[in-house]
Give the backbone structure.
Amino acid sequence: MQQPWLPAKWDREADVVIVGFGGAGAAAAITAHDLGAKVLLLEKAPEGEEGGNTRVAGQGYLYVSDVDKAVTYLNAMCGHFEIPQDMARVWAHEVHRNNAWVSAIGGDPQEHQHPPVGIEFPDLPGSDCVRKYHNGDVLGYSQTWAFFEKSVKQRRVEVLYETPARELIQDGISREILGVRAERDGKPVFIKARKAVILTCGGFENNQEMIRNYLPGLPYCYTSGSPYNEGDGVRMGLMVGADLWHMNNYAGPSMALKVPEYRTTFSLTPLHFSHEQPGGMIVVGPDASRFCNEKLKTMHGKIRKHGKWVPSPVPCPMFLLFDHAVFSSGPLYDKKPVSGWGRIIERYDWSEDNVAELERGWITRAPTIPELARGIGLDPAALGATVARWNASCASGKDEDFARTIMLTPFGRGPYYAIELSPSMLNTQGGPRRNAKAQVVRPDDTPIPRLYSAGELGSIYSYMYQGTGNIGECLAFGRISARNAVAETPWDKG
Ligand SMILES: Cc1cc2nc3c(=O)[nH]c(=O)nc-3n(C[C@H](O)[C@H](O)[C@H](O)COP(=O)(O)OP(=O)(O)OC[C@H]3O[C@@H](n4cnc5c(N)ncnc54)[C@H](O)[C@@H]3O)c2cc1C
């Protein structure tokens, strides 16, 4: 008798089905293929937009020079948000093997300082084990990703593009994962996974409901990464009984411009800590007051307060305000395509003089500060007082409110300008909880048979984050998940 959870017929089959062709998916696919498995990759994006956040990342991946120090550093970053020690150890051990693996598959690991991310928490014990590598000697420009993508293609691993996984097919009695229901051209495609499914479909950066539910205090947030990461792995995991972890952790917030015409955020040059703008620039919240040191370099969104690292404040709506000297000093958008979906994939051509963006309504202009306040819905008197206070701070050379030391430049002549800012992030860290074998587990710690995961979907990072750690973890858990998936006995064998 046909079991009710099985489709009438399978459209495709493979030993290992991998959901999501980013860094973790690539590492898992290469590993599983090289161990002799037949692998099928499902990718939601159309060909040319695959690669997820990995493709548009700064391209650095973590390698650690010493396993014990790495365990110490990771535990110190997690702080009160503790993780199981077998996980910390397996992470450190496998990240330590990243360079050997990249070399073994024909890559060229090169150590880089990976600016602007250094060792993010040098005061924490063990931090001196951190090394940041790229494939090849070019920084950014999808360089590391291109090598992984090429390695997958050389192995002739089949990738089904524009075929999002929608649901895991689970045996109603044994609870094993038997395959995936994907979708293509609006029709279901049933894909049998003889050994296992590996979820590598990224986070929930583009799922506003999950953002409101899981990220602390954020009414909305947008990403500078892939628009295709919509929390599908979280939803599919929940539907088959997975526990979740690290759902409230993310690489953010920062502040950026998000416009309806584009799917991801624009990072604005005046907010870069190293950018020197010639005029007055501050950021205010809905009460027209400043709420941060606008030029502070955060540690992936965390700032130090009262001796603790906490998320930067983002009281929405927030506004970047500046004078005409800033407006006329060159593009307000960093046009160098080193990383970020907008820069690498969509490549909006921001005008040199910012006039096109003014005309599009992305920038608001007014001859005076009170008129600007009215134009953006703020209290004119309050905004006037904030600008006056800022100008006084610049005159005295001391920002008593937020200790900003970079570009203490007063507002000069009008007209004046405002851009509404949104909270922005690189990526989320939460998802189905996995164990040291990369098996997805239920709330009682038991694994869901034949279901694995890797990458930022349920990453190991519970609180503070060391830059390059995500791709470093993709490679590590991509390999672990694939080794264990390939070691499974096919469920359809008798
Ligand atoms: C601008 C930027 C810079 C960064 N720089 C760095 C850096 O230098 N170093 C570092 O370590 N980290 C960096 N990060 C973070 C890092 O890029 C990601 O955390 C990491 O690449 C995630 O890899 P992944 O394989 O887990 O997911 P992704 O690379 O995001 O891949 C997920 C894939 O799954 C696909 N997908 C989604 N849903 C489905 C579905 N239902 N079915 C099938 N496919 C699906 C997506 O289209 C995507 O291709 C950066 C992030 C950004 C945005």
Notes: The chain has two domains: 12-250+427-486, 254-425. The chain has a mean pLDDT of 96.
